[in-house]
Description:
By secondary structure, this protein is of the alpha+beta class. Helix 1 packs antiparallel against helix 5 and helix 3 crosses helix 4. It is globular.
Amino acid sequence: MRDGPSRGLGLFDHHRHRRRRRDRNDAYARPAAGREKKLKPLGVAVVDSRGALRVYAEEDGNPIMRSKIASGKAFGSVAFGSGSRRLHQIGVERPHMAAALIELAGGAFVPVPGGVLVRDKGGALLGAVGVSGDKSDNDEAAAVAGIEAAGFVAETGG
């Protein structure tokens, strides 16, 4: 497994002194959950509440674009304030609106399921997780499993 920026999960900055090791390991637990369900190799991006990439991890066998897709799902969720399932619904219902949002974001988000907001138990936005590699519904399920395993609340936008 390869990973990107290694400063810990930025979406947990306020807990960094207590949770850094566990949170970093949780990024690796998400692809592991996908293996248990026999999903294709997954890539997982974690962004903070500003949309900045904090961690990227992927299993071997992923194509080169996987990191951009996973990051785009996570970034779009934070930028729009909803899980990427809602962005997908907008794309289906109003393709012109989805195209405008993608253009405004400089092409930086991917409006398909698999981007999930991360909230604390009080409802505060901490960031988002984007998963890519299998069918979008499976990507979303893997993101939700990882978020909940870490003790946070997942919001899919559905």
